[in-house]
Amino acid sequence: MGYAILAVMAVGVVLMLTRVLPTAFALGLMAVVIALLAGASVLGDKNSVGTTVLQTGSTLLAATMIAVLLGSWLGTLMEDTGIASTLVRKIVEFGGERPAVVALGVYFVAVLCGSITGSAPAAMLAGVVGIPAMIAVGVRPVVAGGTVLMGIATGLPLDLIGWQFLSDAIKIPLDQVRSFQLTLFPIVLVGSLLYILVETRRRGARHAWAVRLDAAPSARVRRGDAPWYALVAPAVPIVLALGFHVPIVPSLLAGVVYALLTTTRPGKLGERALRSLYRAFDVAAPPIVLFVAIGMLLSAVRLPGAVSALTPIVSALSPSGTLLFVLVFAALVPLCLYRGPFNVYGLGAGVAGVLVSGGIYPATAVLGLMASYGQVLGVSDPTSTQTVWSAQYAGVRPEKVMASTLPYTWLIAIGGLVLTAALHLT
């Protein structure tokens, strides 16, 4: 039975890779088939497809879905009010003709954007102005796209939505997720800065058309610069969650309220709030649908029949000991690319569920494994939406961005695996 379930997972990976089915549909179909193979009844009050997988599973990540919507709302406001573009323009004006300085400035804006909202919206917030600005001062297009992606990935350990997802998916307290992610953050920061400092030394052609650094103040106002005191809006949720331990949903909501109050006239508050919220639903819909399917898959692999069938097989295949853990999973890093079996926002969530429910590794070690792989997925996967957008906007193919960034993200993942082994497997 366990091998049949693994075969279903393999077929699901093929369906996603070949784009025969969208990821969410493939995961939902896999959840139903796995549940049936695990001996679940079609209907019933307990351990059934209808109740456990479809009903309970679809709402398993409900807290994450609400966080996604609020993060998307704040991201939409940052775009509508000019907060993100103003941050980038100020940095470009400060950096002048120095490619490394401009790239570092755009990178830190991308970190802020990545800590608020993920995927393509974060790339657009930082990249719409940032990528042309970097190319204008001589940064190679592939590095300009990679810099934005590195910034988004650096923001992931601070991403409140990511904290909530990992907490819900792995069934681990939020405090433990926050603690590990903050410990991982310096590793990601160093690896990303290494990428920028090394890769920006190789200059590309200069394009004066890409950005105007000497625009008059009146022109900047016409483009919709946000007031200086509104520019801290993306930091508000992070400060509340990290400094004051405010729960994730109210922290994100506070960021939304602050962005509205500091950029909108009182008479226009309601109109802008509703308009941006409606746009946020469009942005949030794809990840929310994905999280519905992931919840179903997690519920399916946690069924008693699935756990008893998969645990002996996965246990036999899983490396034991700290050194083997690091070496084997470091070698398997590419399996999180191209929607592979270690993609944490796909089948990897199901694999994590098996590792935890089967008691193969401590939940904290699985957290470290998935967070480390998430760094590679968020930057170097040429099928992820943020990588595709950044590459195309910079005028290069996503595979070139993968080739440029993968050595660095692989190194970051290895650092995360070493950290995980040292903290949770010794």
Provide a concise account of the structure shown.
This protein is mainly alpha-helical and 426 residues long.
Account of the 3D structure:
This protein is mainly alpha-helical and 426 residues long. It has one domain (2-424). It is 74% helix and 0% strand. The chain has 20 helices and no strands. It has helices at 2-17, 23-37, 49-58, 62-80, 83-95, 99-116, 119-136, 141-155, 160-170, 174-199, 217-222, 236-243, 248-263, 269-301, 304-317, 322-331, 347-357, 363-380, 385-394, 398-424. Helix 8 packs antiparallel against helix 18 (363-380). The protein is globular, with a radius of gyration of 22 Å. The two termini are 33 Å apart. Mean pLDDT is 89; it is low at 208-223.
Helices, strands, pairings?
Elements: H1 2-17, H2 23-37, H3 49-58, H4 62-80, H5 83-95, H6 99-116, H7 119-136, H8 141-155, H9 160-170, H10 174-199, H11 217-222, H12 236-243, H13 248-263, H14 269-301, H15 304-317, H16 322-331, H17 347-357, H18 363-380, H19 385-394, H20 398-424
Q: Which percent range fits the helix content?
A: over 70%
Mean pLDDT: 89
Quick one: biggest sheet?
A: none
> How many structural domains can be distinguished in the coordinates?
1
Radius of gyration: 22 Å
**Which class do the helix and strand fractions yield?**
mainly alpha
| Strand element count | 0
Spans of at least 5 consecutive residues with low confidence: 208-223
| Fraction of residues in β-strands | under 5%
Individual helix count: 20
Order of helices and strands: HHHHHHHHHHHHHHHHHHHH
What general form does the structure show? Answer: globular
Amino-to-carboxy terminus distance: 33 Å
